[in-house]
Design brief:
The structure is a single chain. This protein is mainly beta. 15% of the residues lie in helices and 40% in strands. The protein has two helices and 13 strands; from the N terminus they run H-E-E-E-H-E-E-E-E-E-E-E-E-E-E. The strands form three sheets. Strands 1, 3, 4, 6, 8, 9 and 11 form a seven-stranded mixed β-sheet that branches. A hairpin with a 5-residue loop joins strand 8 and strand 9. The relative contact order is 0.25.
């Protein structure tokens, strides 16, 4: 019986790992306008109640790998969380832009931990003053700095009263 459990664990664990985690987004000098939807892991927050600490610490949350470049959940009252990792294998620091190419989203929050483990939070979206955006553009952009030889995890929360479409790109 113990051997059956061990063999089953060996065969199933890698499959669970593959389902739970999407691939990293590797950036380099040639990265330009890369759609990252299929690199996202997404969870629906039906009650709109998850906080960032809960989302990163709760092992019971069932993240689902996106199979679409532009995840689309239609009209919904739920908030959606997405997580992804940007990987810089080079010896150079990269400055990239994360674009949300769907302007009508009411609230978009970006969370990440810096090198000192402090939580950073940036907010944008249709319900926020246009003049406070990082880039003067109808789409929402966040400037990201990825140090050399570094993997950076990002979490995003999306909320809207309209259609929930999450078209994310890296420039």
């Amino acid at each position: 019986m113990l051997i059956k459990i061990i063999i089953t664990s060996i065969l199933i664990f890698p499959l669970i790992n593959t389902i739970a985690y999407a691939s990293s987004i590797t950036i380099n000098e040639k990265t330009y306008r890369k759609y990252i939807g299929k690199n996202l892991r997404i969870v629906e927050d039906i009650s709109n109640s998850y906080s960032f600490p809960e989302i990163i610490d709760n092992m019971n949350i069932q993240w689902k790998k996106s199979d679409k470049n532009f995840p689309n959940y239609g009209l919904t009252n739920s908030a959606y969380w997405a997580k992804f990792t940007i990987k810089n294998d080079s010896n150079n620091t990269f400055f990239v832009f994360l674009e949300c190419a769907y302007s009508p989203l009411d609230k978009i929050e970006l969370f990440y931990k810096d090198h000192t483990n402090n939580i950073n939070k940036r907010i944008a979206g249709d319900s926020f003053p246009f003049k406070k955006r990082e880039i003067d553009d109808p789409h929402v952009y966040f400037k990201l700095i990825i140090p050399p030889q570094h993997n950076q995890d990002y979490y995003m929360r999306f909320e809207t009263k309209g259609t929930m479409i999450i078209p994310l790109l890296i420039h």
